[in-house]
Automatic annotation (TrEMBL):
UniProt record, GO biological process: DNA restriction-modification system
Record keywords, A-Z: DNA-binding, Endonuclease, Hydrolase, Nuclease, Restriction system
InterPro entries: Restrct_endonuc_typeI_TRD, Restrct_endonuc_typeI_TRD_sf, Type-I_RS_S_subunit
GO MF terms held by the record: DNA binding; endonuclease activity
Pfam families for this protein: Methylase_S
Name of the protein in its database record: Restriction endonuclease subunit S
Lineage: Bacteria, Pseudomonadati, Spirochaetota, Spirochaetia, Leptospirales
Family: Belongs to the type-I restriction system S methylase family.
Residue intervals of the Type I restriction modification DNA specificity domain: 49-193, 225-380
Length: 399
């Protein structure tokens, strides 16, 4: 059988190249079917794990993630075998690239299984198939694709794919994989901080049926029970002012102010309604009940409630109290959920009689929020760094 010809004899080099490859040959551009074949192997006894094909985890056994879709034993008979090192074209590859499998399992026959037919370093292509430029190429090559349709093997084969020497493939892949490990570690740190905050919130405020919190700072152990009050006594809640959608800009420029609506920040406007520090509660929309602590000059629309603390109430403590209450549970209406101020002000809450205890709780939680924000920014910085590397380590194909 005649060997498949390469699609192009063009050669390129990336913008970023490791020193040991500065004088190496340029990269070749080849067609997808020069490196991969479409595999349809249904020879299995149905005892292999069923794989979910996801953009976040790649191909992964369904039982390892929250993936609840039932299938019949009869339908499983038609499932395809996926081997470690295989790539999968999914229904959403035009959106998130081509997925990779570390597992032996089976997947729906709707997917296209790609298996290498030339010596190559799997993880080089695992990263390349997720680059924005390659995904753009998928979209360009498949104009008009919509949900329910899939990239065909023919369409995959028509795209140009880089084919550098094996040692350079490995060097690039190892660099990006190491960065992925760092990102994963920092992501776990962020989730741990967020989980810790969630638990701390529950313990620093009284549980249902209790009048004191489970955790209390030593200097307030003998301060007595918290006072039961209506939310309307703890703060005054008032809706903001209407602003036309045409006056709200998507991006910040000098002279504009943040604009908050029912689902949080909406954009930026030329006007502001408040200047200071306030808790804002979204009162209209799918995310009604969300709480933001806003400082400085901002515009609150009629779909946001501005909360002014009552006498003897610490402003920042009020924010955490509102945040903990999960106000969305009080929303009414189906098509357009909303919160009624008349209902909210009647909700019972407990507050420390000593404003210094409120301050202590607020300081503790705000310090934790600062750590979470710092960790979040660190994680975003690493992700941005990876995107820059992806752009620099792979030349643009097909041009």
């Amino acid at each position: 059988m005649k060997q498949k010809e390469k699609i192009s004899q063009k050669q390129k080099v990336p913008d970023l190249r490791f020193p040991e490859f500065k004088d190496a040959r340029e990269w070749e551009e080849v067609s997808g079917d020069f490196l991969f074949a479409s595999i349809t192997n249904k020879n299995h006894d149905s005892n292999l794990p069923i794989l979910a094909i996801t953009q976040e985890y790649g191909a992964i056994p369904r039982h390892l993630i929250d993936y609840q879709i039932s299938v019949t034993e009869k339908s499983i008979e038609s499932y395809k075998v996926v081997e470690p090192g295989d790539f999968i074209i999914s229904l959403r590859s035009f959106q998130g690239g081509i997925e990779y499998s570390n597992y032996l399992g089976i997947c729906s026959p709707a997917y296209i299984i790609l298996r290498k037919i030339k010596p190559l370093y799997d993880h080089f292509y695992r990263h390349f198939f997720k680059t924005p430029k390659y995904i753009q190429g998928l979209n360009k090559n498949i104009e008009g694709i919509r949900d329910g349709k899939m990239v065909s093997f023919k369409q995959f084969s028509e795209l140009h794919i880089p084919f550098p020497a094996f040692p350079e493939q490995q060097k690039i892949a190892d660099c990006l994989s190491l960065l992925d490990e760092v990102i994963s570690l920092e992501s776990r740190k962020l989730k741990s901080l967020q989980s810790y905050k969630k638990g701390l919130l529950q313990k620093l405020f009284p549980a249902e049926g209790e009048t004191v919190p489970e955790l209390r700072f030593p200097e307030f152990q003998d301060a007595g029970e918290w006072e039961k009050r209506k939310l309307g006594e703890v703060c005054v809640m008032k809706a903001g002012q209407f602003v036309s959608a045409t006056e709200i800009k998507e991006f910040f420029i000098e002279g504009l102010f943040p604009c908050y609506g029912g689902n949080g920040i909406r954009g930026f406007t030329k006007t502001y309604t408040h200047d200071g520090s306030y808790s804002l509660v979204g009162r209209q929309g799918a995310l009604c009940g969300n709480v933001n602590y806003v400082k400085g000059k901002f515009h609150a629309t009629e779909h946001a409630l501005v909360c002014v603390p009552g006498l003897g109430i610490n402003n920042l403590w009020l924010y955490y109290q509102l945040f903990k209450m999960n106000l969305n549970q009080y929303a009414t209406g189906q098509a357009q959920p909303g919160l009624s101020v008349d209902n909210l002000v009647k909700i019972s809450v407990f507050s420390p009689t000593n404003i210094l205890e409120q301050q202590k709780i607020a300081d503790c939680l705000s310090s934790l929020d600062a750590l979470i924000q710092e960790q979040s920014q660190k994680l975003e910085g690493l992700k941005s760094h990876k995107q820059g590397l992806l752009q620099g380590l792979f030349p643009v194909m097909g041009e």
